[in-house]
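[recover] target loaded
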């Protein structure tokens, strides 16, 4: 559709658009058009434009994005994992309605799934009801890194991206970091990218296969050693080795504290994840760390951090503990 536009060189486009926007002259109903080295900015009142050349040009109407809420009449809860959309609904019919609305909206999704079980077993996987599509493998992007995974074979929570980034920002080049429950590598890969030498373990062989692939995807395969198996069986091979330990197994990390202390070097930071009642979110974890490490190590709790609400009156928390050999 031919509409009045300000015509400017592309190099001057953003400054011009900003000046027109400040004067409330940019027409929100049409898209800005780029042709060769020229930008065409649709305007609402060509007579009010000063200091710029006004012409007419063909500009497409701007389409308003369609959201699932537009289709449903309410705001559904869902999360994205790559191009898989995950809903969490007890009512199968409501889950199906949400899936249909997602597919009819502008949300990018090739598969929609509903959680069908809690995380279970030592490999920490869950069952899924596939509501739309068939592909359960995807590539998730997080803070500049890519993670390939299959949700039916491994555990991965996109909700923990901010927490993972918080930990990775503490990593110094040259550190030796051990991820005791590594999954597909959301801690291990960015720690290696930050310059650490990383050892990663997980009892889920499929997760370790994906971790090795993700190390290659992100160009850090030379700084990650991955082991499939129980980390307690690796402790003797890496005794006194680690400058940093990640213990992201919040329901049972305490069962592995003896192995963690064995892995710890003379000065080691442990990121210990726990789930506890709101009445004493940090005390049980702190006592468990001290019981395992003292008197061989002096223990300093550097950070008591609430990651998220887990259940009514229960919280997923992290203790950043500094262990210094006595």
């Amino acid at each position: 559709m031919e509409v009045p536009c300000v015509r400017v060189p592309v190099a001057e486009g953003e400054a011009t658009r900003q000046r027109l926007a400040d004067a409330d002259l940019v027409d929100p109903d049409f898209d800005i058009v780029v042709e060769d080295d020229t930008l065409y900015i649709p305007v609402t009142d060509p007579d009010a434009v000063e200091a710029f050349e006004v012409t007419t040009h063909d500009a497409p109407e701007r389409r308003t994005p369609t959201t699932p809420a537009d289709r449903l009449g309410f705001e559904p809860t869902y999360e994205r994992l790559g191009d898989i959309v995950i809903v969490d609904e007890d009512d199968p019919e409501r889950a199906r309605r949400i899936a249909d609305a997602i597919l009819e909206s502008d949300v990018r999704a090739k598969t929609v799934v509903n959680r069908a079980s809690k995380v279970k077993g030592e490999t920490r996987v869950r069952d899924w009801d596939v509501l739309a599509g068939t592909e359960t493998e995807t590539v998730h992007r997080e803070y500049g890194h890519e993670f390939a995974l299959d949700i039916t074979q491994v555990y991965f929570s996109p909700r923990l991206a901010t927490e993972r980034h918080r930990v990775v920002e503490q990593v110094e080049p040259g550190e030796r970091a051990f991820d005791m429950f590594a999954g597909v590598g959301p801690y291990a890969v960015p720690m290696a990218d930050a310059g650490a030498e990383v050892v990663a373990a997980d009892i889920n062989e499929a997760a370790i296969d994906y971790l090795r692939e993700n190390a290659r995807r992100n160009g850090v395969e030379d700084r990650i050693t991955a082991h499939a198996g129980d980390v307690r069986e690796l402790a003797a091979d890496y005794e006194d080795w680690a400058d940093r330990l990640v213990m992201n197994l919040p329901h049972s990390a305490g069962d592995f504290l003896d192995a963690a202390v064995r892995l710890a070097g003379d000065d080691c930071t442990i990121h210990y994840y726990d789930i506890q009642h709101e009445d004493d979110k940090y005390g049980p974890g702190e006592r468990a760390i001290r019981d395992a490490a003292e008197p061989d190590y002096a223990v300093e709790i550097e950070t008591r951090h609430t990651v998220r609400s887990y259940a009514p009156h229960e919280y997923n928390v992290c203790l950043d503990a500094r262990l210094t050999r006595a």
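[recover] notes: The chain has three domains: 2-58, 68-135, 155-325.
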